[in-house]
User: What shape does this take?
Amino acid sequence: MTRTVYRDKAMQRAEADGHRLACEDLAKTPRHMLGTGNPNHPDNDPKPTLFGYDVSEFMARQHK
Assistant: This one.
């Protein structure tokens, strides 16, 4: 799309609303119910991590 479309406030609101709805839908969907093509599917995690750390390592840091 051209830049002029994004300068239109109505289009900016529509894009923001669409993004918000998509994020809400993704948040409501359990990870195991996602398709394997979705990067958020657990099969696509080579090793479960939180913020780049192993889950147990990260939780140990949190509970010191």
The longest helix spans residues 9-28. The two ends are 50 Å apart (CA to CA). Residues 3-62 form one domain.
